[in-house]
Amino acid sequence: MISLNSPAFLSLNKSTEVGNKVTDADDIQVSNHQQWNHKGGWKNLLNNFRLLIQPIMMLWIIFPWLYILPNSNLLLGLNQLISEINQYQFFFNSG
Questions:
Q1: What pTM value is reported for the model?
Q2: 8 A C-beta contact, residue 8 and residue 93
Q3: Where do the H-state alpha helices sit in 1-95?
Q4: Mean pLDDT of the chain
Q5: How do the domains of the chain map onto residue ranges?
């Protein structure tokens, strides 16, 4: 199970301060998304997590159509977006 209260996930939220947060100049700020919710609570965190996994879900939904109507620019754009989002590491609870 993924812990939505892990430091890695909470560091994406601008309103949450994490002790040793490391920022890179090349990092994208996913919290700038227009639907990102900066409030606390499990529903808000779940919504933010949904925003992070949404691009890969959309890729798998339209993937069969890309065989029929190939669009390399769309595929490259989705792959770039997914690789940017994959730079964030989530905490998996082992218990």
A1: 0.54
A2: no
A3: 7-10, 42-68, 72-85
A4: 74
A5: 58-89
